[in-house]
Structures are given as structure tokens and as C-alpha cells.
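Support reply, case 0932

Customer input (verbatim):
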Amino acid sequence: MNIVIAGAGAMGSRFGIMLKQAGENVILVDGWQQHIDEINQNGLKANFNGQDVTEFISAYNQNDLSDVDFSADLVILFTKAMQLDNMLQSLDNMLGKDTIVLCLLNGIGHEDVIKKYVDYDNILLGNTMWTAGMEGPGKVTLFGNGSVDLQNLGEGKEDVAQKVADVLTNADLNARVSSDILTSIYRKACVNGTMNGLCTILDSNMADFGDTSVAKPIVQKIVSEFLAVARAENVFLDEEAVIEQINGCFNRETIGLHHPSMYQDLIINNRLTEIDYINGAIVRKGKEYGVPTPYCEFLTQLIHSKEEIVEAK
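Our regenerated output:
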């Protein structure tokens, strides 16, 4: 299968490496030229569960695709939410009437942008519980285990979703077709809505934050706001189960020493964050539904203040 990884950061690199190892025809598309050059010159390097791995995968700048001859069967979206529209514009010459687009972005509501570029029946929404870290241009750290949930938006297109799930599972990415992806997306959003913003503001990994005396009540307040908005959209989650999943992020023996993607973006790479598409989205939806979201609003404001202080780009 011809696969485009759109957004070759830490998570995109993980999927690119694992799909390439499984024999798929993969290219990477990104906007970070130094990262692209390093991959093309020396391969994409990874510490893969303690083992050094190098995969040679063609990488392209999203602004230089007009002469690239690649017809995509599948596009997996990992670009930042605020860059989604521009990325899809750049990929236009690679998208055909049968191209499937799988959106694995953090946040909520991305299908409204994607449907401008591909048929609604070819859109899959999903989320992934895999983790990855960016060490520098052309180098990532991949550790732990994970999974992917995905669902077709087009009615009666379960076969399309299953085809993609099979490709991912063949690459050991542990994918399954869901019949209720919004529940999975909101569950993942609860993890992102707590770990990303809080660890970024506190300059902390997840385990160190989890060890603080106030971690649990802060997490509970933020989760309660996410779930209240979800209920307004007829999505119902078990609060205790969601918090238990988040508590698993504090385990030092598994992923607790990990710094979430928002931390990597803002603190390490001085990049603008996706806060408006995570906690900020809950604030917007809360106003629409009349649901108070003071913790999410405050955290969103704090992240934007930090972006301004460090002059993030």
C-alpha cells in the first residue's frame, strides 16, 4: 500500500518506521527541513524499546510536493491541528478519488477540514495510545506498547476501516475498528487535556506530576469538564475508568518518564501548541452547550501566556 505519513514528528516517525518494516511503501511529509534533510541523508534513527534502529524512508517538505510522483492509497494525518488545512492543500496532487485519509490528530472536529479535500466516505477518525519522543532532527525514541482505534465516517464503509486496521495491525500497531470512535476520542482527549497542558506548564514529566499532592484533584476537575461536554454530545464515559487510565500515565515503569507532545513542542522545540484544539475546544463547546469549563479555560490561558513568554513560533 502507498502510504503518506503527513506530519513526521515523533508519532508520525513511529508509524512510518513500523509500516516500512512491515513492507509498506511509505513516504514522510513534514515542514521541518532540518529533520527532512537528516532523514534523507542518514535515515530515520530510533531508539526502539532499547534497540537502535535506522530506517531509510523518503522524506519531503510539504511545500515542495508539486513534482513528487506518488499516488496515495492511504494518508495518515499526524500534523498539528492548526496546520491541517495547509497540509491537505499541499498533498492535493497525491489525493485521488479512492484515497483513504485516517486522522489521528489530537483534539476534536478535524473531519470538518478533511472533507474539503476527500470524499466523506473515505475519511476515518481514530486515536492512538502509542507514545513517542523526538530527540532531534532525524532521531526519535519509541518505547512501550499501544493501540489504535478507528472508525469510518461513511455509512456502510466498515470494509474500508477494516482494510486500514489490517494494514496497521500487520505492522504491530494493534488497530481495531470501533463502532463508537467518539467515545475513544473523548477518552484520549481527557488524557491529553490533563497530561499535555499540566506537564508543560509545570515543566514536568508525567510521573513527577503524578507524585504531587494535588495531582488527583486537578485531574478530576479537568476530566469532569471534558465529560460534561461529552454528555452534551450524547457521548457517555465512565469517569472513574477515565481517571484510572490517566493514573496509569504516572507509572515510572511504563510511560511515566515520558514528556507529552505539548511539552516537546513548546518547552523543547519552541513551537506553538494545540491547546486550542484540546482544552480550548472544550471551552468553546462548553459555551455552546452552557457547560462551565473554568479549569480548561484557565489552563488554555496559561499555555497561551507561556507561548507568548517564550515567543513560540
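We compared this against your earlier run and they match. Two observations from our side: The domain at 182-309 is CATH 1.10.1040.10 (N-(1-d-carboxylethyl)-l-norvaline Dehydrogenase; domain 2). The mean pLDDT is 96. Please reopen the case if you see a mismatch on your end.
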